[in-house]
Amino acid sequence: MKNLYRVLLLAILCLTVLTSCSEPPKPKDAIKKYMILWEKQDFESMYDMLDSKSQKQIAKKDFIKRYKDIYGGIEAANLSLKSAEKAKQEEDEKAKFAYSVKMDTLAGPIQYKHEVNMKLEEEGDSEAWKIEWNPSHIFPQMEEGDKISASTISPKRGAILDQKGDPLAFNGTAYEVSIVPKELPEDQSKTIVPLAKMLGMTPEEIQAKLDQPWVKPEYSVPIKKMETNNPKIHDAVALEGVKSPKVETRIYPLREAAAHLTGYIGPVNAEELEKLKGKGYTAQDWVGKAGLEQVYEEQLRGSAGGVIKILTAEKEEKAVLAENEVVNGKDVKTTINNEVQNSIYAQLKGDVGTASAIHPKTGEVLALVNSPSYNPNDYTLGLSDALQKKWADDPENPKMNRFKYTYAPGSTLKPLTAAIGLENGTLNPSDVMNVKGKTWQQDKSWGNYTVTRVSAVPNVDLEKALIYSDNIYFAQAALEIGQEKFVSGLKAFGFGEELPVSFPFSQSSIGEDGMSEVQLADSGYGQGKIQMSALHLGIAYTPFLNDGNLITPKLDQDKPGSAIWKANVISAETVKIIRDDLTKVVSSPNGTAHEAYMAKLPLAGKTGTAELKASKEDKNGKELGWFVAYNNEDPSLLVTMMIEDVKGRGGSHYLVPKVKKVFEENLQ
Which positions fall inside the Penicillin-binding protein dimerisation domain (predicted)? Predict the structure, then answer.
């Protein structure tokens, strides 16, 4: 018993010593902890550090909500806090510290210095320094009852212009068809049903807008916009309860002809809003969703203005905490030519395909066209569920941007194969290939596979091979060049690289990770693993018009840069040989593009047909038709057109008159 007593006594003595020797809490440690929590916006833990009086004055949930609402409303970011190392004033149970706050907001940076009082309070069996909180901690000018007002001013969006300054996209006006619920007839269907038909909507879609939580009987509820030249607007406003004030809206004057080029804007969604945090966007803003609207969003958008104020309980302005002026978006002047864009679309319309047009001497992109297409104005005027479903269900996929993707170029690649062979010394333009019949194979190792040509011309040199578009000649040419030099030659024309242009295009590819002998042969005439975009194919012809230099594609009129992408891709001698032969592809009666011949407007170029087969044995694959053409005397326009599924429609011959028409409309 005595031993137990001694052990307890010793334990009590040790505890007493430890308690008396432990350091008392320091206010500077507490304030530093509080600042760290504040910087992390851990408002719940901040509240736990408030003194008892402060916690009686404001409930925890209200404290957390106040900070979250204010910081969320002003879009506070990059919050930084720092407290003084030493107390400004310190007594036994009281202390005062200076601190500073910095943050970015929707109206610009805010920074301030302030002071916080602290109090030593009991906390369980110990003591802790607590914060004497009041609203001035949020902002020094704030008092109880004050509110924070934060507002943004959206900038005016810049226009997208063609090379002449004509608009591709601009801020115009439209009629906003609206309904005032209290002004509807007793039988609301008498207005809603006919209006839905006029607007291409369902009555249910209109009713859903009228049933939104914010709607009141006297409010004007926007339903959909209508273009100012739409004659249906008169019938719409004749219905009871319907109004049509004019409002600003984004207009795309070329409509379907340039939809995939211009893209469109739409309401910003939650995911986009998160990515754009800190850039002045609000849930009410619109943002570029596709095309040039998306590519040049930052330039077109400008910078939102904003102001953050403290208001009294009576909503009177007490102080301005931050303010920045709105900076309107800048116009984007492109190299596009509206007339050429419309002209090409008119020729493509009704088919599935794509086309590009460039100025082959400067690299200026004059047109980028797709068919089928859609009307981008439907996005800014109001897209109905029915139209969205129609586009989604269309097997021809009008929303697909075909001009940015790559395809097998077929025989339009043959001039490049010839140029590579000439540069490597494996091809002599005067050498004659003697192959009888329409099929050929290297040897029996090819099995049943053969290269097939259209015309059985037995004696073929380079000129005839291009005029007749002889697949066998160019298959043999590729095999003579060899895979390594063939791949290297194509890379000199920009294969495997991103096009140096502002719009995102898929890279043209070769399949250099390994080609069989058959694939190399097929690649020589644009099949195999070769894939090109229409724009790159057009650019690849520019060395034939620029002393062997590959020209840089240019879409932004004001963007500086070198006109030459790759210098001296081919020699002057090669240029002359290929250029003369491409002229004869059109001028010769036997040329595959002879239908494009015009004495007063001489063209040169190359047709091509690419077979899309699931396997070598596939006899029912679709065919892509191609035609690349330029004017010989005035090389200011080079057009590359591709149309899908031309099998049974004349192959590439189906395109020749279409491209010819584009030149007639734009150069004569």
Answer: 153-308
Residues 6+ apart with CB under 8 A from 250: 157, 169, 170, 171, 172, 264, 265, 286, 380
pLDDT at residue 425 above 70?
yes
Q: Read off the pLDDT of residues 214-249 as tens digits, 9 standing for 90 and up.
A: 999 999 999 999 999 999 999 999 999 999 999 999
Q: How many CB atoms lie within 10 A of CB 643?
A: 25
Q: Residue 20: is its pLDDT beyond 60?
A: no
Burial track 28-56 (b if 16+ CB lie within 10 A, e otherwise): bebbbebbebbeeeebeebbebbbeebee
d(CA 354, CA 372) in angstroms, rounded, equals 9
Q: For helices 414-424 and 572-587, give the axis angle rounded to 10 degrees.
A: 150
Instruction: Give the tokens for residue 210.
Output: 């009228």
Q: CA-to-CA distance for 597 and 591, rounded, in angstroms?
A: 10
Instruction: Note the pLDDT of residue 171.
Output: 96
> Three-state SS across 311-376?
ECCCCCEEEEEEEECCEECCCEEECCCHHHHHHHHHHHCCCCEEEEEECCCCCEEEEEEEECCCCC
Q: Which residues of 444-470 are buried (b: 16+ CB within 10 A; e: fewer)?
A: eebeeebbebeeebeebbbbbbbbbbb
What is the arithmetic mean of pLDDT over 661-667? 96
All structural domains of the chain with their residue ranges: 24-144, 160-258+274-280+295-333, 342-391+401-667
Topology, domain 24-144? Nuclear Transport Factor 2; Chain: A, (3.10.450)
Question: CB-hemisphere CA count at 13 Å for 321?
Answer: 30
- Classified as helix, coil or strand, 29 is helix
Distance CA 134, CA 117 (A): 10
Q: Known catalytic residues? A: 411
Query: Residues 504-545: pLDDT tens digits?
Result: 999 999 976 778 999 999 999 999 989 999 999 999 999 999
CA distance 32 to 487: 64
Q: How many CB atoms lie within 10 A of CB 667?
A: 16
- Listed in sequence order, the DSSP H helices in 433-516 are 462-468, 471-481, 483-492
Superfamily grouping for domain 342-391+401-667 = DD-peptidase/beta-lactamase superfamily (3.40.710.10)
Average pLDDT over the chain, rounded to whole? 92
Q: What is the CA radius of gyration of the chain?
A: 36
In sequence order, which residues have a C-beta less than 8 Å from that of residue 72 and are 6 or more positions away? none
Reported as a single tens digit per residue, the pLDDT across 103-148 is: 999 899 999 999 999 999 988 888 999 999 999 999 999 999 999 9
pLDDT in tens, 389-404: 999 999 999 999 999 9
pLDDT digits (tens, 9 = 90+) for 568-601: 999 999 999 999 999 999 999 999 999 999 999 9
What percentage of the chain exceeds 90 in pLDDT? 84
Note the CATH number of domain 160-258+274-280+295-333. 3.30.1390.30
Tens of pLDDT, residue by residue over 592-637, are 999 999 999 999 999 999 987 645 555 566 899 999 999 988 899 9
CA-to-CA distance for 77 and 159, rounded, in angstroms?
31
Q: Which residues contact 610 (CB under 8 A, 6 or more apart)?
A: 407, 408, 409, 410, 526, 527, 623, 624, 626
